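During the second year of the project, the team shifted from modelling isolated chains to modelling whole assemblies. The rationale, set out in the original proposal, was that interfaces cannot be judged from single-chain predictions alone. As a representative example for this report, we include one of the complexes processed in the last quarter. Its constituent sequences, exactly as entered into the pipeline, are reproduced here:
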Amino acid sequence: MNLEATKRAELARAKHQQALELMDKQHLDGALRLFGEALAQEETCGRWNDWAVAQFTRNQFADAEQGFRYALELDPSQRVLPERPSRNLGDLRSLSHSTSKTPKHMEAILQTIVAEAPERGRRGRGIIAA
Amino acid sequence: MSAAWPSVFDGLKSLQAIRNPVARRWAPESKIGFSLSTRDRFVFTMRTIKSLDAEGGFDLVWNDGSERNEVPELSRFFAFRNARLAEVNYAVKGGADAAICYGLRRLLELGYDFVGLVENDMLLAPGWLAAMRDAFETAANEGVVVGAVSALGYQSRVLEYRKNYSIDWARGAALVLFTREAAQLVLENYSRLEMSSQQIRGFYAEQFGVALHVPEWAVGGRWMDGPMTLDWGFAPLQYANGYACVGTIPSFATDLEFDVRRVLRTDYVRAEQNASGLAHPNIAVPSPAVPNFAFATDEQRESGGDSTHAARVTP
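Output from the structure prediction step:
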């Protein structure tokens, strides 16, 4: 990796970390901005996944779906990802059942995404959990 | 390819001879500008700009009409590495046609020699711009006056596969690069571009003796007819004025929003189609010496309703 790429990766990691901290504080707009900045520097499966979770959390389901799908496209094996309970598919399912704002088809979409990644589905893990 | 094979080439050359279009050369110093139209869809936008930016040698004028703030913010923090972001315009509202006209007008005002459009659901493969230049130059070297070139190629929209470029009958706003003169032509005639699918088929039958076989327009054994979005008129307008629309072989672009096989019932242009000749059945219709297709007047168009609400089939 050249120097510029290393710098970009470091910057992306820092932005991503700040975004996760904002997510924990429920500052979704700020988190999305920082996820976006991190993704502009360096795309990873986990970063897109976290961006998609933030979109899901604020009921932007079309964006969430696109984010999840692209995350899987980047790394179908999900080997590189840290496990975070908040990113777990089970949590997303619970969310989809618990809020009246969530369209019923989101559950089906999530099922489809999982079905398209058999390894993950078999392990019963989250969208991105390794 | 043999000279005796069916071809649209002679029809094209005779249209050129009648219309005498301006033949612009793609020189190293040519100024190339693309208008990028965006309206939300952050994931697609990010993927489009990253793939665009894999190549340099062109300027980008980013025209955004988003409802939400994520894509406008992306335009502020995304650092282009190869392309030059010349300017960003926000609140470009009014729909796809308004964005297309705004982009063309702005690029012409800025003095570009080649004026392009790209939408935020295109994924471009490395080498896309060089491939467009090669297709343009190869066609020009054969004496074709090119008005529009693209790296997005659908098999069903090719008229003829020449050696190292295609001659296309449809050229939408998803990814296209016009010569300055051809862009001016589009802009000046924009309100008169509306055509039905039947009129488009009639135009190519009359001008080139080709029966367009368009899977997405066929339901069962019947050809469906209906109003089309205005960008379907780009290519007929070009040909009617002596300009050709050419494409790369293979396609260097894919759609992010839909599966072309399922939605358009076709596939992207592939390398093995190079030089394979006419892509549609030819029919024995004598071509008139002068194109007799008239683009509808503003009055006729207004009486037919607002086509900007029609489904945008050609992205």
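The two ends of chain B are 31 Å apart (CA to CA). Chain B has ten helices and 14 strands.
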